[in-house]
């Protein structure tokens, strides 16, 4: 081993605490980059593989009922590659072991599994349905697992007013339901909503739709225009009650998974940059300190014949070796984290095969970025070592010229104790170094704030959606629009304390060159069982005239209050109307349009219709009402607010807990690395000064107070700065992560800031203990020896 290599290893062992701190920061940055990059690629690859293998459609269309011969007509449209027609309907289920009624979506499949169809079925367990057995169904995997059902079990369903016993023969999945959620809901409830695939002939018979269909899917030929195909489909099926064709980008399941992938991509950019920036800072101050304390060694090396390149590479090794160690540890940690995160995603999304891909490209890119950061951090110190002439290096540093500072003036100098004046004077004389230390510690605080921001945002989301906005216990969704007289049926139910109805009318909204397929929700009141509440938890009233749009929908259409929208009704008389935009509401979930139900009935030109009922029920009579709901005809679905909240809490708890633990751990590593390195470097620089003070009569406690008090002041100064940076980062995250499906409310709890404060204080205390142990064990004689 060469002499310079031995010197390098010896020095690294001597500085092992500081170098391990640098390696830990690099490892955190690499692990985040590797894990999130591999997760993003794995989700994309699994999605594309699933879509391709099971032929996920490009365009979708729902109608009331259309003749089957239109399938051939659609197949002849220019740009259409393949077409599949189906029958789908939502029904009420009576699930064994479940007190509340559940909702099932019945989807028709061919009796014989021959030619490939779009949105094909992946059979996870059991078998395919047999011809001539209309009672056989294949149920979705999450529903069966949540209810502890297996192939061979029976389940009851109310189909078109008739109760039927269904035999589950298989467990399946479809690319159409990667995110399996009940229509009208945003959060999955695996116990109370499931998809069932059933014989086409059986559904035709049960729904009196022989020779017809109500659901169409198609794929596009290469280079085909989706917009042109959708336009022709809308013209072709307008007379059959079409709700308007839409592309894959508007399909609910695909939109959720695409948004999730986008969020992962944002995290790839955000967190690693913070850690690499801190690594640059740490390496810079550590190497500058090494060069400053080894001036005489540099002179000797150059005098012995070592070239500038040899000296430069030698000191570059102080940066590259801990970076290499961090890269190895970070890669292994990233692979482990990535696999764990994929297991969590498997709970949210239903892939036929969710494969984890660990890519060497991600590792290579992260390592290259880390070494570039290390080189950037070491460059200044290495340049100063290379440019230092031997004769100058042999001389000690020129004494710094000091002048009295602000706190050295009368009468402050007599008020402050000597140790405090020493601390303040040192901070005042090294303002840039102190400012950088504050900035680095504040980044750790900011990561804690931003990491828990999503927790606060989701908590506000739950508070608004499940407490303030929705005050009903049960939502009953009708299969078809019902006349207003249906209200008397619910009024006569024993146990129904309060009822409220709404109408939902599909329309196409247009303003100038922009248009959007959307439903208008007609409400009886904005202060009833469903209230209109924005993401800041403020209640909003329905406008006296016109329509109320969510802010995001208004931005998409390019309208403001006072503008006039062109409205084309897609069902019924298909009337064209002009409607005033009466206001906007910044809601958390989805895109919505609200107006008074009486005004909506007038615009639709009919006697009024109801699509669903909100009910507040007597909890003591809940079991009796559940039995009634299970047998109720004409119902497409029933949602229990309490059950939906419990399901959401159960689903979200694991992911939130995991992400909080990861971010907290990484922020602790970051804070410890900065605080510990700052204290260790300060100890190295001031060891002679502190030892002199010991000789002059100061106690170990007093010199510990001087050194650690300085670090405590830097940490306390960093906390409010970190709060501000964390708030700014959270604002960026809220903006970047928000989409049409949901908008994260910008809200923080006091616990968030308290949590960050406590974590940083604990980490600083632990690092202070480590430095104090080294400080109290200083060899005064050795430290005070001169080097001349």
Automatic annotation (TrEMBL):
Gene Ontology terms: cellular component: plasma membrane protein complex
Keywords noted in UniProt: Cell membrane, Membrane, Transmembrane, Transmembrane helix
Membrane topology: Multi-pass membrane protein
Stretches assigned to the ABC3 transporter permease C-terminal domain: 270-386, 662-777
GO BP: any one term: lipoprotein localization to outer membrane
Keyword Membrane (UniProt): yes
Database matches in Pfam families: FtsX (PF02687)
Domain of life: Bacteria
Localisation per UniProt entry: Cell membrane
Transmembrane segments: 20-39, 270-291, 312-337, 363-386, 435-455, 661-679, 712-734, 746-771
Recorded family membership: Belongs to the ABC-4 integral membrane protein family. LolC/E subfamily.
PANTHER family recorded: LIPOPROTEIN-RELEASING SYSTEM TRANSMEMBRANE PROTEIN LOLE (PTHR30489:SF0)
This protein's name: ABC3 transporter permease C-terminal domain-containing protein
């Amino acid at each position: 081993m060469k002499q310079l290599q031995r010197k390098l290893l010896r020095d690294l062992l001597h500085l092992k605490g500081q170098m391990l701190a640098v390696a830990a920061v690099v490892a955190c940055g690499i692990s985040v980059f590797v894990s999130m990059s591999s997760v993003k690629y794995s989700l994309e690859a699994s999605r594309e593989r699933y879509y391709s293998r099971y032929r996920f459609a490009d365009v979708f269309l729902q109608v009331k009922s259309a003749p089957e011969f239109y399938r051939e007509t659609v197949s002849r449209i220019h740009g259409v590659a393949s077409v599949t027609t189906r029958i789908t309907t939502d029904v009420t289920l009576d699930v064994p072991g479940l007190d509340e009624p559940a909702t099932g979506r019945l989807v028709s499949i061919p009796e014989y599994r021959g030619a490939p169809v779009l949105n094909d079925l992946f059979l996870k367990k059991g078998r395919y349905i047999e011809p001539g057995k209309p009672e056989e169904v294949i149920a979705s995997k999450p529903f069966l697992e949540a209810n502890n059902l297996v192939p061979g079990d029976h389940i009851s369903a109310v189909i078109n007013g008739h109760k039927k016993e269904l035999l589950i023969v298989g467990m399946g999945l479809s690319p159409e339901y990667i995110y399996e959620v009940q229509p009208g809901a945003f959060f999955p409830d695996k116990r109370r909503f499931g998809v069932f695939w059933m014989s086409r002939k059986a559904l035709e018979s049960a729904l009196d739709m022989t020779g017809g269909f109500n659901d169409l899917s198609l794929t596009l030929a290469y280079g085909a225009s989706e917009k042109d195909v959708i336009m022709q489909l809308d013209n072709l099926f307008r007379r059959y009650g079409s709700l308007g064709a839409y592309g894959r980008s508007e399909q609910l399941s695909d939109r959720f998974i695409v948004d999730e992938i986008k969020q992962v991509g944002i995290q790839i950019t955000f967190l690693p940059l913070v850690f690499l920036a801190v690594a640059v800072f740490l390496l810079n101050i550590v190497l500058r300190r090494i060069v400053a304390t080894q001036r005489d060694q540099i002179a000797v090396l150059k005098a012995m014949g070592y070239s500038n390149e040899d000296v430069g590479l030698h000191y570059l090794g102080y940066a590259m070796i801990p970076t290499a160690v961090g890269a190895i540890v970070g890669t292994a940690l990233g692979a482990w984290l990535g696999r764990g995160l994929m297991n969590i995603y498997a709970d949210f999304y239903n892939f036929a095969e969710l494969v984890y891909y660990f890519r060497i490209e991600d590792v290579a890119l992260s390592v290259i970025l880390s070494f570039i950061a290390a080189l950037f951090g070491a460059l200044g110190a290495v340049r100063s070592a290379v440019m230092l002439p031997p004769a100058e290096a042999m001389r000690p540093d020129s004494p710094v010229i000091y002048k009295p500072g602000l706190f050295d003036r009368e009468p402050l100098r007599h008020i402050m104790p000597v140790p405090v004046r020493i601390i303040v004077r040192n901070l005042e004389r090294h303002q840039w170094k102190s400012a950088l230390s504050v900035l680095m510690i504040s980044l750790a605080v900011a990561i804690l704030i931003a990491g828990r921001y999503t927790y606060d945002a989701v908590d506000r989301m739950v508070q608004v959606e499940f407490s303030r906005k929705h005050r009903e216990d049960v939502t009953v969704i009708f299969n078809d629009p019902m006349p207003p007289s249906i209200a008397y049926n619910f009024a006569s139910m024993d146990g129904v304390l309060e009822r409220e109805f709404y109408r939902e009318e599909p329309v196409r909204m247009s303003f100038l060159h922009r248009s959007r397929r959307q439903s208008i929700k007609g409400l009886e009141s904005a202060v009833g069982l469903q209230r209109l509440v924005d993401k800041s938890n403020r209640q909003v009233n329905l406008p006296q005239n016109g329509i109320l749009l969510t802010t995001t929908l208004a931005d998409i259409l390019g309208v403001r209050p006072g503008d006039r929208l062109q409205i084309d009704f897609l069902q019924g008389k298909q009337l064209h109307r002009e409607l005033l935009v009466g206001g906007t509401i910044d809601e958390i979930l989805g895109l919505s349009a609200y107006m008074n139900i009486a005004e909506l009935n007038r615009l639709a030109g009919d006697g009024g219709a109801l699509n669903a009922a909100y009910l507040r029920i007597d909890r003591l009579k809940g079991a009796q009402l559940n039995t009634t709901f299970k047998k109720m005809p004409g119902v497409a679905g029933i949602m229990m607010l309490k059950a939906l909240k419990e399901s959401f809490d159960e689903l979200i708890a694991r992911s939130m807990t995991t992400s909080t633990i990861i971010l907290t751990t990484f922020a602790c590593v970051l804070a410890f690395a900065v605080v510990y390195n700052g204290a260790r470097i300060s100890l190295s620089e001031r060891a002679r000064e502190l030892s002199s003070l010991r000789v002059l009569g100061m106690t170990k406690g007093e010199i510990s107070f001087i050194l650690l008090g300085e670090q405590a002041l830097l940490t306390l100064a960093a906390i409010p700065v970190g709060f501000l940076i964390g708030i700014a980062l959270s604002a960026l995250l809220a903006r970047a992560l928000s989409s049409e499906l949901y908008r994260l409310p910008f809200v923080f709890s006091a616990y968030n800031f308290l949590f960050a404060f406590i974590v940083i204080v604990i980490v600083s205390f632990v690092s202070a203990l480590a430095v104090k142990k080294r400080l109290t064990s200083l060899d005064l004689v050795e430290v005070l020896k001169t080097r001349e």
